[in-house]
Records
---
Amino acid sequence: MTEEGPKRPVPQANALTEPFWEATKEERLTVQRCTACDRLFWYPREFCPLPHCFSSDYEWVDVSGKGRLHTFTIIAQAADPWFQERVPYIFGVIQLDEGLRMMGNVDIPVEEAACDIPVEVYFEKIDDDWTLPQWRPIAS
Amino acid sequence: MSLRGAASIIGIGELKPERRKPGRTGPGLAQEAARLCIEDSGLLKEQVDGLITEIPFLNTCEFAETLGIQPTWAHGVNMMGSSGPTSVAIAAMAVNAGLANNVLCLVTSGEVGGFGGGGGGAIGGQFPQFAGPFGPGPGANFWYALVANRYKHEFGLTDEERVAIAVQQRENAQANPDAAFYGTPATTDDVLNSRMVANPLTLLECVMPTLGAAALMVSRPEAVESSPHDPVFILGVGHSMDRGVPGITYVDRMTKSPVELSARAAYKMAGVGPQDMDMASLYDCYTITVIIEFEDAGFAPKGEGGTYFANEDVTYKSDGIAVNTHGGQLSFGQPGTAGGMSHATEAVRQLMGRGEARQKETVDYCFVNG
């Protein structure tokens, strides 16, 4: 990619999510664990969203990085110029073994995308500031 | 507490959805829909003492000022595609509480000159971090594509079956001169062969953004006596929101919608059920949306909505239930949140017997959702 080409979009992190993005640089996938009710939740929030809990006490814990491709789409019309040069590509929702769902790209030929195939996380370093969690198939 | 029969709907104001409105302004479109609605109700603007709006570029009190009215009760609504029907429900509450006699409910598209991104925006900052870097594409296309592929996986629905509702709604639009796609019929092959947007959804399975505005007048039940139209009563309302709804990704089950609970609440209040409905006016940002709502509103078992549309007539000509007789937003056009309101205006039109070329023969009860 030349300097003149479209710039790849990077996450717009904030104070809440900084620990998550720092962990990805160390190739760790982390989520919040509510220390009051001892349950995991995702996406990041300052207050536990789980039933019968409203705590603001949490810690970041590593998860397995293994799960299944819950569903997917093959993007043919992208909005972002960087992605417009890369259609078609897979945008997936991954259901982690821990039960949480995350979004990401899946590194397989588009015709091989299918719901519930086993996947695992890998880490794609974009630059010194940003590393993205991405997904690839594994043997079941 | 019930709102059964607590309010009537006595007038409609709606603009034809169009991609361009040369020489017009956003406030002007809103004012035009307001005037149409007030005149259609047989009222003077001075008789409008309640106002509820979602106008992206004007708050409710500013809009009252632009009309030159001084309502004694006013409210804003902020519920994306469901703002229109929600505004009607809130108006019924205001009328029932004796806070207003005639509530103008009005929602519009964005300001003339461009179309916004849509798709629910930033959602508390999570979307730009956890979806944006992976290239989700414009608007909400990807979310409903994700739902559609999961639905295919769970229920074996074919692409041909999924697009059937788009074809039937397009047929409805051929009898509606106000529809954006009036004069442009489409077959199953036309839909399937239109440009791929986000697999499995093609272009003709996705709403087209337009400009426009839509309004309904919600009044005390006695108002039907002086109304120039056949009476329309609100019998039941219900609301529901899924846990984890920011962006569909996180909901417990992607192939189920909150309509299951909101419909149940509305039927219970109304004292009628899906078997009594002549028509379903279902929010249709995408084909898959209609299929899931149709099931969750009780018109077909889970997993069979798409096959129902593929095998049964749900146009205005149907002897059974008709769906989105105005063409739905897929064929009528989506003027921002006024697209959601179009499901309510069409229900009222059909109940009043004002459907003209697309009037369904028997319409006593309509189900509307946003």
---
Amino acid sequence: MVLTTQKGPRAIALNGDEAVALAAKQCDVDVVAAYPITPQTIIVERFSEYVHDGEVDTEFICTESEHSALTCCLAAAAVGARTFTATASAGLALMHEILYVTSGCRAPVVMAVANRALSAPINIHCDHSDSMVERDSGWIQIYSENSQEAYDSIIQAFRIAEHQELSLPTMVGLDGFFLSHTLENVSVLPDETVRKFVGQRQIPLVKNHEGKFVPYKLDPENPITIGPLDLHDYYFEHKRQQEEAMRKALGIIRKVHDEYAEVSGRRYGNGLVDSYRLEDAELVTICLGSTAGTVKTVVDQLRAKGVKAGLLRIRTFRPLPVQEIIKALQHVKAIAVMDRSCSFGGSGGPVFHEIRHVLYDSNIHPHVVNYIYGLGGRDMSQLLVQKIYRDLARILETGKIDKSIKFIGLRE
Amino acid sequence: MALEWKFTAKEIAEKPELFMSGHRACAGCAPATVHRLILKAVRGPTIATNSTGCMEVTSTIYPFTAWKIPWIHTAFENVAANASGIEAALKILKRKGKLKHEHVDVIALAGDGGTFDIGIQALSGAVERGHDFLYVLYDNEAYMNTGIQRSGGTPLGAWTTTSPAGKKIPGKPQLKKPIANIMVAHEMPYVATASPAYWIDLLKKARKGLEVEGPAFLHVIAPCPRGWRSDPSKSIEISRLAVETCVFPLWEAIDGEYNLSAPSKVIALRPERKKAMEEYLKTQGRFRHLFTPEFKHIIGKIQEVVDRRWQRLLKKCGMA
């Protein structure tokens, strides 16, 4: 499928997985290591075709598990290679240990996650339980609204992850089936444009044990030890450095997003949060991923009726763009935070935790309620979104919240 | 496979140390000796990777390192996947003209826990995929780093903290997993066993493992005085006794063809040279409970297992 050697952008019909595979191919990845899992499989299938047809020069390792897949990427990145993997659900859970090792080793691996529910009971459909588990793992997390954004975000992810000042692994989420398997018109850039945009992999310099600055990679000319035993006398400082890098990533994600907009003409808010009709909005929904498309339709319907409805989509969930969230919500009076995962026994879903926490220290104090929705691929219809806005209107009118954490769209 | 090189004591002494002194391994630690020896066998630029375990812990306490070559550790169960990723990266970077060196060797090192047990999946996968690397198993027959717990590599009857010498169950009731044979069954190009007591044999096998194209597996017996409850000054003697009693025979399998190595071949040709099991067991406190009237019969069982495995090996080597 050589469709991208043309001079200008071109729209082709791709599902989310295909868009991701194409983006990774155009980024001239050196090593891809992956293990098949629904709904990520199309990514590895397409990439295998690229390799077997000689369309890309990549070492593709079909590993015996996701644990080894991520390990291979981490080790290959440590040698200086550009690396990519993709997984979902149980596969991401199996990688859990190595996710922390990857970020701890500051290996700039890029990964696509076709978001899917976790077992048990086993379910192959979309929710965010898999990647929400990993929100503290030291990976940058970007959630895509549609396949176009998944394509664009993968390209941006290499620039972000490999940025000299970050060297942080980056995860791009695309909702399983809703995006991974749904055909969409995706505007793709020419190969040359993408290659020029991502450039060569940059290797930062680090001080070795003799005090000399050397490239941070496994290089026989400048041998360094990566992944040593690091006890109570240094471990804490190293973890603090990771947090510093995460904070720094906020600016770099925005910058890369801006530069990409110049090349592609596409923007997703400011790269961190994406606002829809928020300027004067009073009733606002906050969500991640493909649900934003449905919410936008409902917002338009409500606006036509004169309701001041709006949407805030968190595109970058890690690092959390605290200031941007507060800024975006300045005039808002009632907020419904939508979580496509459940923190069992906790006080609401993980996105809700973050939003309410962020607002506590801010200058604004709107009503904030939580809706847990769509677990295991349950559809989030326009009717349900309309109900959420009705609830918000009632809260605003009465000033009363009957229940701050609700489940929506299920039998109770 | 033409092997022109020779290892003499002089040559080995003159080769630079790549695994440096100053590490924190215990007195008499054979795994440390094995690491030092293996790195004496390298033929050029080399990247090493260890699984979690004694040697990773004792050789890299930040901000110090015993490694004069590039080295990485990521986790316990995945050292063969580390090697796979490193090898794949070297291959593609060379193809794209981004590698300075003509060739870089890859060595993965892991203990028995990281190989027999938690690491066998990654190892099996890496070998099936045919990555070009040398895997060195330093086998001290238990999880020593965590405080002497039994592994799939712990032999029958041995005391460990999770196979205690109890009143009812005297040590480990199960047999040692025949890991090297399992690796031969992968139809990989090179599998061998070695003992630091026969260091020239060990060095030659390590070098062969590096030179062969594709994966190579080297299983090295490596006594641990703390876990074996043995005299720290006797680790090399004990690793010699392991060979002389046929507890740990030395052999290599090139493309699946088994051949006894010289120290074991001598015993095959002159069976009277095979030493009695007790001699080996007596050097180690982990078998002490077996030298009681109540449990003496276990020694007979161990002897049976050793003899049975030795006979099977002789058959494979065409020497039965």
